[in-house]
Amino acid sequence: MPRSLAAVPKLLVACTALVAVVAPSQLFAQDGSRAIPSPYREIRHGRYVELIGGQIFGNGGPIQVGPQDGTVLGARVVFRAKNTVQLAFGGWTAATERLIVSADDSVAKRVSGPIDQRLIGVEAAIQLNITGGKRWHAFAPHIGVAIGLVKGAKTPAADSSGYTFGSKLFFGPNIGTKIFFGQRLFVKAEARALLWKLNYPISYSEEPTGQPGTPEVPNAVNPTGRRGEYTLTPAVFVGLGWAF
Fold first, then answer.
1. In Å, how far are 10, 16, 160, 221 from 108, measured between CA atoms?
2. How far is CA 173 from the centre of its chain?
3. Which residues contact 20 (CB under 8 A, 6 or more apart)?
4. Which residue in 114, 136, 187, 208 could disulfide with 97, CB within 3.0 to 4.6 Å?
5. Closest C-alpha to 96, from 64, 68, 74
């Protein structure tokens, strides 16, 4: 038998012995303990479309004419610009409610409602992926902020004081996470704080004809005279996303 063929059995034995020694060693860390597989998995796709829904938890602000509780529906397109940064663009609508405050009525009778207050918003958001371009098990948490424009539709009941929600810029810091089912499908949960400014009509600063007060005890709706103030409205969003 040629020497080259005769050496084959010895080579197979040597390779088998090497595998038997090296392979088990890969399951153990340098300190001799068993190595734990990494919980991180790469996120391969960088473009997603999301359908979102949720709930706004508003209190209407100090005068209670701002948006209160209501449901939210919307959609967004998300682009992962880098491993830790993603951009999102979208729109939403919220079916909220608000109260009517009639500045000329007596204190006991000037508040009525609630009535429907439809909000329509568009936004751009930047988010930082806490785990970078990977997910921890199925989770990919993030923090971020949205900046947008929100408009309040005309309410069905007339407000004799002249108040309207109008159109305004809003600012929305948020925190949440995606939960992946494979590489393309995920669900999302997100908590937000929507910050916008309510603008009050001048009639809120005047004493009501139905029950005027005194300089010491004013009965004006807004005795401070401020024409507006910022209010913080919490919200919770959930979503379903798909990579494209």
1. 102, 92, 16, 12
2. 7
3. none
4. 114
5. 68
Cβ-contact 116, 95 below 8 angstroms = yes
User: pLDDT for 15-73, tens place per residue?
Assistant: 444 334 444 444 444 555 566 788 888 888 889 999 999 999 999 999 999 999 999 99
Contact of 85 with 127, CB cutoff 8 Å:
yes
Per DSSP (E only), the strands in the chain are 40-42, 47-59, 68-80, 85-101, 111-129, 134-136, 139-152, 167-181, 185-199, 228-243
Strands (E), 107-211: 111-129, 134-136, 139-152, 167-181, 185-199
With beta carbons less than 8 A apart as the criterion, state whether 55 and 69 touch: yes
- Kindly state the tokens that stand for 71: 């449901």
- The two three-digit tokens of residue 142, written as one number: 């993030």
Write out the two tokens for 34: 């068993």
| Res 159: pLDDT | 80
Tell me how far apart the alpha carbons of residues 12 and 140 are, in angstroms, rounded to a whole number: 46
DSSP 19-38: HHHHHHHTTB-TTSSBPPPP
Residue 114: asked if its preceding bond is cis (omega within 30°), the reply is yes
Residue type, 162: G
d(CA 205, CA 63): 12
Joined together, the tokens standing for residue 190 give: 């997100």
pTM of the model: 0.79
Structure tokens at 78: 């998300």
